[in-house]
Write a structure and sequence with these properties.
With 293 residues, the protein is of the alpha+beta class. Helices cover 22% and strands 26% of the residues. The protein has one domain (4-290): Clavaminate synthase-like (Double-stranded beta-helix). The protein binds N-oxalylglycine and manganese (II) ion.
């Protein structure tokens, strides 16, 4: 069956009809989906009754998978695959995380606008998030269109930004929420990495802002000046016209391009309702500093 793309946002989000992600895709369909990803940047595949293995197999159509997840207390894993990100409020025995659990505090960072793995030397290309258990209220995921945000900047400001290099770290994003209890080992693992502020998106040949709450510095700038600029750009890029809000239904699979979008989770009653989402993350090809701007 041919795929149909139904617009969810005029510029960058669509729902895909006619895909079955349980089995290997028919010839040509992976490329058809990638072409749609280049045009949009967020695709929603409703009603996908898939398990961890099927989710990973679908992801592998689009590149190399990140080898490990960047989180705290990794020895307390709930999921069987080390490559699968546990985006839930559950502990290793499937119970709601305790109010004071360190992982719960750390995970709150997902509610700040970000791009996945921008704190890694080679950041993420696509993320694929699957809703296994969704919440009756709240818990939406919002996406912001960073190519449109770039296009909307005045030319003078575009010139000023074009060659800037930012430093990204999980330590910076968590510090914004006052979370700073990292071990020495975590501090070393999460050391800042440089990323271009403006990127060229290869599949569309459009420029895009590359922002995230993980940014804590701009190279060559005084920190307060840098953070004031980043905050201003964040406000610009997340105006309602650039945002698609996804209200989850069970078994939705949402796939987004981290090279040209930001996203954030919205609050929900996480001490009352379970929310079990699982994410597979594909790597970009090389550090952004090595990519043509
Ligand atoms: C993610 C993420 C937000 C959410 O899976 O990368 O940031 O809504 N999720 O859970
Ligand atoms: Mn994320």
């Amino acid at each position: 069956m041919a795929l149909k793309f139904k617009s969810l946002h005029p510029a960058f989000a669509a729902e895909v009809e006619g895909a079955d992600l349980r089995a290997p895709l028919p010839p040509g369909q992976a490329a058809e989906i990638e072409a749609a990803m280049d045009r949009f940047a967020v695709l929603v595949f409703p009603g996908q009754d898939i398990d961890d293995d099927q989710q990973m197999a679908f992801g592998l159509n689009y590149g190399l998978m990140e080898a490990e997840t960047a989180t705290v207390d990794v020895h307390k894993r709930r999921l069987k695959h080390a490559q699968m990100n546990d985006i839930s409020n559950l502990d290793e025995s499937g119970q709601l995380l305790a109010a004071d659990d360190r992982r719960r505090m750390f995970n709150l960072g997902n509610q700040l606008w970000h791009s996945d793995s921008s704190f890694k030397a080679i950041p993420a290309k696509y993320s694929l998030l699957h809703g296994r258990v969704v919440t009756p209220e709240g818990g939406e995921t919002e996406f912001a269109d960073m190519r449109a945000a770039w296009d909307a900047l005045p030319p003078r400001q575009q010139e000023k930004l074009r060659d800037l290099v930012c430093e990204h770290s999980l330590l910076f994003s968590r510090a914004q929420l006052g979370f700073a209890e990292f071990t020495e080992e975590e501090r070393a693992k999460f050391a800042p990495v440089p990323q271009r502020l403006v990127r060229r998106h290869p599949g569309s040949d459009r420029l895009s802002l590359y922002l995230a709450s993980h940014i804590g510095r701009i190279q060559g700038w005084m920190v307060p000046e840098a953070l004031a600029l980043i905050r201003d750009l964040m406000e610009h890029a997340t105006q309602r016209e650039f945002v698609y809000s996804h209200a989850w239904r069970r078994q939705d699979l949402v796939m987004w391009d981290n090279r040209c979008t930001m996203h954030r989770g919205r609050p929900f009653e996480d001490r009352q309702f379970p929310r079990d989402m699982r994410r597979v993350t594909l790597m970009d090809s090389r550090p952004t500093l090595e990519q043509a701007a």
